[in-house]
User: Fold these one by one.
Assistant:
Number 1:
Amino acid sequence: MIRHHLAIAAIRLTVRAAAFIAPLVTPLAAQVAAPQSLFDRARAPALAESPPLIVPVVLTSRLPDGPALHVVEHRELPLVQVTLSIAGGGRLDRDLPGLATFTANLLDEGAGKRDANALQSELAFLGASLSTGANWDATTISLKVARRNLEAALDLMADVVLRPTFAANEVRRQRDLRLASLMQQRDQPGALANLAFSQALFPAGHPYRNALGGDSASTARLDSAVVREFHRGSLRPERATFYVVGDLSAADAQRLLSTRFRGWVASGIERRPAPVLVTPTQPQGIQVILVDKPGAAQSVVIVGTTGLERTNGDFAAAEVMNTILGGSFSSRLMTNLRETKGYTYGVNSGFAYRPLPGPFSANSGVRTNVTDSSLVELFKELRAIREAPVSTEELVRAKAYITLAIPSDLESTSQIAGEMVTLANWNLPLAYLREYVERVNAVTVADVQRVAKQYLPAQSAYVVIVGDLTRIRSDIDALALGTVTVREVGSIVRE
Amino acid sequence: MQRVRPLLALGLTAGLTAGLTAGLTMSLALPAALSAQGTPLRVPVTVDTLPNGLTLIIHEDRTVPVVTTNVWYHVGSGDEKPGRTGFAHLFEHLMFMGSKNAPYPQFDRLLEAAGANNNGSTSGDRTNYYESGPASALPLMLWLEADRLGWMLETMDVAKVDLQRDVVKNERRQGVENQPYGLVEDHLAPALYPAGHPYSWSTIGSMADLSAASLDDVKSFFRMYYAPNNASIVVAGAVNPDSVRRAFREMFAEIPRGPAITRPSPAPFTVRDTLITLEDRVQLPRLYLAWHGVKEYSADDAALDIAAYVLAGARNSRLTQALVYEREIATSASAFNSSQRLDGDFQIVATARPGFALDTLKAVIDAEVRRLAAGGPTARERGQAMNSIEAQFLNRLEFSSAKADRLNAYYYATGTPDWFQQDLERYRKVTVADVQRVVRKYLNAGRVTLSVVPQGKKELAATQRIVQ
């Protein structure tokens, strides 16, 4: 059991840039009391000046057949992280929600001359870890391995990227497993709440209405042919970038990858995102969506609306504002709903950044008999940060929490590669981190209030509640928040 | 053993990262393989102990300007009294509720203002507290830890206990009651361990016991277990060891030593064959098979870890191949050797595909276990397990927080913080014959067979029937 789960951190990591600070820090002798003991227990130790941010050197080049290559030498341990990010991902699903993630998951279920069993056996025998996946931005193939086994592991990675088998029996097996996993969502209150929220916010025709993992109807239509076509049309060299971090030089990275990915040539018709002709549905006032979960010990609650795009100039201010609202342990939502009222184990808020504007939402799981009170407090906080300026202390704390924690997000080879990938989704280099720190530090109390007013829901929002309706329905109705709709589990999961 | 993390990640975080978690399986904790066998793993440390018994372990690593402070108190849910299950973890929550010089809510606010994160966790054997952040935050981390070790109780009151009791009950609701298959631990632990055994109840505890916890309980627990002689502190990262030692002395030396602690010493026992069926709000039945295992770091511990890997540690492992790939009767299979300080257990877990009864899964699992007992693993299987385990060792060394927690764990278990290489050697010594022997010895004994089935579908539960 842990004190609190850092759901918050997970969100922050996706939006947070990261960097190195100079390896030499102010000697501790200057920070703590001198031997003669100026130490005074009644006062918190003063913090040393934070050293300037130094961004690691990224050497950028290109492989012969098109893919870009970004290398960071990081020689702490004899390890190498190789991440291949191919732009596209779930936004290329078009009429088959879940196709990008399904194709990605099949890449390592047999490739080259090896079936799934042999491939996994080879990788594990090398002590290599290879994973494949897709998000809304990209398909990603990620390899981590000891330097001495890098060559052999890259041979397998090249097979996975260029020569996946997509054998009919493997496709069918993985499709059946996915159908079983989708079926299990019926019992997962958090998953149900997220689905209901997305279905409310994004109208038919909008890609985010669907889950990245698709639904049972779209999954039933997946077969070898559509997967092969997606692979040909989407995993193309001109969209690919390798991020290599670890115990090797840029020249070695270039040499090792060039030989293995030579001849990666695009074929077939390039797959493009379907045009998005609809915009997120603006709620009319507060629209409450209830999902019955008889006997539930808690109610899962989401309050949200459309957020902002990552390229928006208000990004830094929005992140500072959200850190104060619900993006840190000492945030207002956590202080109120958990630490003062005891309604919940955890509550958080955040903006989801995707190719198109994703949602803003505040999320919590609250005790059934305080579901209505929790909503009152959630809306109170959403209003308060719009209506009154935050304190200077809150502002300073939030900025420090964002900027000073950056080096901790970049300790390992995988973290460094991950941050490069995230930033690259927005065409930002790692060097952007310095600018991000400056932008965060420039945010004022007035900026926080302005972005709160502009982007947070207050008068109009979607409220999704998954809980025991026989116990909460009358309390929710009594709040008179706005329109109330009840959705059946079957309609949410099936959609 | 650290219990599975509670739930925000499973349910609520998905709100914002649903897209990411659903599709992108990239992990920050990927294993990697070691360099040549001859290169020893070293995490150099210095060890200092104050007259009050508090131990400081420093590992200097200036790769990145980050520092971690990690405190282990040698008390866990295994030390709880009858009628107070869940107390050690509830107490962990109270340690964040302020102390004399850092009254609530300064602990979190000061650390966040310094760019640092913090958290704590409770297992059967120990409770840990950790802060990670920029190196400049280290004096603050030490000061806060000292203040709550020396001057916490005087600020404790009934209101704080009541509040965190509510929070912990919410944690239990979220992690146990509202979670598919969440109730399993409540039933598995008392079936595996005899009444009164420290591991016979779950770390989260029962609602009734959480309700019973009092301010007096908090005070006596603190006085007994939250004492310098029952703790060790690791500082790992970009630090100057001399400065750390000086700050450590100034901040912790005056805290008085606590009483001698009597550790539980449970009597030996055997697990009897037990059949349990739970009906839950789940779509797919899930089977848990659990046997009596061994203490952590004891003779057969590493061989059981390798047995778990050979059975279900990778996609090409025996149970995963048989259940998920060949027969296609399960959606997943896993196996764990959960060894703790006082004892351990070994579990195999498999979730049925729609339409399959758990007896069908059990028959295949039993056949695979028998096959492993009869022939042992192949050299290749043992090699794959070993290479994967070595990779995990190296991967862990990338994170100062992971190193810090292992240093405290090794120190408590062996008296030597830098025990990484010795730990690795335990695995290297395991032969295929060892794996075969431990499978025969431990997985051919009494066991708990627990089925979780959809409500009204008891006919899907495992029985004692032998299905060939």
Number 2:
Amino acid sequence: MVGLIVRLRFAMWRTAMTRSPLHLVSSILGGLAALGVLALLGPGLLLLSQRPLRITALTVPLFAVITLMWTVLSLIATGVDSILDPARFSVLPLRAGELARGLLAAACTGIPAVMLTGLALAQVGSWLAHPAAVPAALLGGVLGVLTAILLSRAVTSALARVMTTRVGRVLGAVVVSVVTLIPLAMNTLLTTGSLGTDLSSFDATRSAVLASWTPFGWAWALPFDVATGRWASFGVHLTLAACLVVGLHAVWVRLLARTLTSPLTSSGGQRIGRGRLLPVLLGTSPTASIAARRVRAWYRDSRLVSIALRTAVLPIFFVLQAVFTDTPGLAGIGIVTLAVFAGLTLMNDLAFDGPAWWLHVAVGVRGWEDRLGRAIASTVVFGPVVVLTFVVSVALGVISNPVSWLTVVVVSFFASLGLAVGVGAVLPGTAPRTGGNPFAATSGGAAQGCLTAVVSFVGPILLTLPAVVVVILTSGSGAGRWMGLAVGTVYGLGLLATGVVLGGARIDRHAPELLGQLATAQI
Amino acid sequence: MTEPPGAGPALELVDLVKEFRGRRVVHGLSLAVPRGSLYGLVGPNGAGKTTTLSMATGLLRPDGGTARVLGHDVWADPAAAKAVMGVSPDGMRLFEQLSGRELLTYVGALRRMPRDVTAERAAELLTVLDLADDASTVVADYSAGMVKKISLAAALIHAPRLLVLDEPFEAVDPVSGQTIRTILRRYVASGGTVVMSSHVMELVEGLCDRVAVIAGGRVLAEDSTAGLTRGGSLHQRFLELVGASDVAGEGLTWLG
């Protein structure tokens, strides 16, 4: 059974790659990225063996964090790698235990698992200076890798059950969005605290001990315990780590057994309000109706909820960091970044509609109505967030030159919106499946993704640059700055109008072809 | 529906050609659907029914040929053609974040109908199609049959003069199926035209007044239902035309 499922996985992988060049390219890019991580971290880990024990101890917190992030990231990735969805096996006469072994083996052959195994081996290398710790490192590595893989499987299986309801998906999206921000929060704390990175005085022992007593660090602490001669902790850690692996396996098998007997189906019957406010605010023209639909999607669609949250929470870190570190430029840059991100969310807006967009084509909606409606929706959703962040920052005194910064913010927001509605009509991008995993990575489709990424990165900078020049030229006098704001606003709206007209014209000419692209836009 | 029938077909397809990755799936297909008829399109899986209907409704650009809806060229003047046509494709998702009522209101707004007219018609359609209790449920939580019905309602709301329905009865329960048949008959009686595809021969035979049999992207036969069946059943005639193989008689003996 194990061999069969592993072969099945490779067969499906091969088919996916031969059928779609995008899949092939993204697989290659994923493999290269994994190799890059190995090439970057591997030698570093090996070099740790040349260092004193207090520095070698770094492996414990490092791998504890890797194990935690592995679980979080696997949530984001399951949408992409749902080839071996356990529910698909529910019609076959299979016991959960057998299936679990097969799926585990298949999971171990994936690029991420191979990368983790490589890192775990490098971790063994870190302890070469302490021969007694090497077997412990090997044992810890095996247990640690198993913990990471089983934990991610168990958590995804458990969450899959929650995710079958729309409300569950929205809640899940909220939780995971917040969790993925943890590294950012840690960064803020690190840069604001007094944690130095001076190697001569650096001591990882304390953080190693701390990490060793979290479930993520139990296994990875084994070589550290041996090297420092803490045999009692070694015994406890070994027992805990082994129990964790066995326990996670048991939990996962039970979840699988439940999936096999009751394949997941939506519980259905979720009702929503009448939504009377939006038509009053926006009107009932086609453009307004499209805007209202997209605004609703931003809070009803779990896929968008997680994006909206991440986009909206991001600038808070910039502003906080500006307050803590007293670098005024940071808050301004943070808000400009928010404005750009908010505008660019429209880039793959069509992919979120996916094949359902046929309705627009069948009705014969004009391209500019489609584009303008979406731009209005994004302005309604993100405009207040941008304005609020700006006002709060000004009130906190972290923005030194409000009018000038406001000009840049306004221009960058409208420029990104214009860029997104224009480019989005040519490259509709990709999105997670409707009703699918809301955490699934939205970038996907590597080749198109790369092109979009370049456009998303360079475009807003180029388009905002003239406004920055105007701001610098007019910064001399108060009246000049207000003039700059006026000119900037007109310029930004001009860019948006250009995007709407060009994108709309493209849709008018190529709607059926675009619909064809959208048929495969959801992954 | 005030215009009298006549004056050219409601839907006219001339030499439609479609290729996917160099493989031709529709071979110069021509059809003329008379005004005021209930027209059935039948064919085996992969016959090109959906592809043909997509090209007729402006959802898929043909590689050759023309499609005319009540005199408007679908590909030269899409706006005019789409204004008089209601479409319910098969297997295409709807905007699932909207409730049933919101979806109908949305379509009404896109078609620039007055808001009160849309609201009135939406309420009536939801009641007739037995969706009134689920009017505030998002379409994502609808069953397959309910999706079919709301899709039909969305195609009907602007009172089109041509209805193009791909598998309108699939997954629909018998009671709703009867309702839909009644709606379609009444619609045709008042001058509307329906083009529908289906796998279910009995249904087409009982409902449609003209039938075209399509296989391999070509029209094999086209006639009035009575003319095509000529005493036999549409089922038999279809199997004759398509050339059903008699595998079940020979193989699978181990199945008992």
